[in-house]
Design goal:
By secondary structure, the chain is mainly alpha-helical. The protein has one domain (about 40-160). The protein has four helices and no strands. The longest helix has about 50 residues, at about 25-75. It starts with about 25 loop residues before the first helix and ends in an 8-residue tail after the last helix.
Length: about 170
């Protein structure tokens, strides 16, 4: 059985505001909206970078494999058996090295985590966007504190603190 994964408790699950009537809800929502927008863009870009890197490695492997096939179709008069034998040894080694690098770096898993984080921030972004629009039209909300707490809890529990490329 795998050991239980340790989780870090960053903050209290919810923070109680003692002066909710003094909070400028529009200011808070606009700040949250800006923060969620920046975070969404950052995580979306990371997902694109990791996905592109993963795809680039796959394309390199395919090209190396195709090169190996092409080399063995060249007649012995144009390319000696010794050179073909060397290529037959070198190209699979290159393929193995590239694939092991891909597995070690885990860009596919990092892309999935980044996509999940981007999706979360996009949902929070939409929530604040619609609330801001309602407030601009004269509406008001009693639960802006809950929106803030929801963002805090989701960000600390579901979003990785950082993801490194290597």
């Amino acid at each position: 059985m795998a050991p239980k994964k340790k989780t870090v408790k960053y903050t209290q699950p919810k923070i109680k505001v003692i002066n909710p009537k003094e909070v400028d809800n529009m200011f808070l929502l606009e700040n949250l909206h800006s923060r969620f927008s920046d975070s969404y863009k950052r995580w979306r870009n990371k997902a694109l970078i990791f996905g592109g890197s993963h795809l680039a490695v796959a394309v390199i492997v395919i090209i190396v494999q195709c090169a190996q096939v092409v080399v063995f179709q060249i007649p012995d008069k144009q390319l000696s058996r010794t050179v073909k034998s060397a290529i037959a040894t070198i190209l699979p080694s290159i393929t193995a090295a590239v694939l092991s690098l891909q597995m070690k770096l885990g860009w596919n898993k990092k892309q999935q985590k980044s996509k999940k984080s981007a999706t979360l921030f996009n949902k929070l972004l939409k929530d604040t966007e619609y609330r801001i629009k309602m407030m601009e039209a004269g509406g008001n909300f009693k639960d802006v504190e809950n929106v803030w707490n929801s963002g805090l809890v989701k960000e600390t529990k579901e979003v990785p603190a950082f993801i490194m490329a290597y």
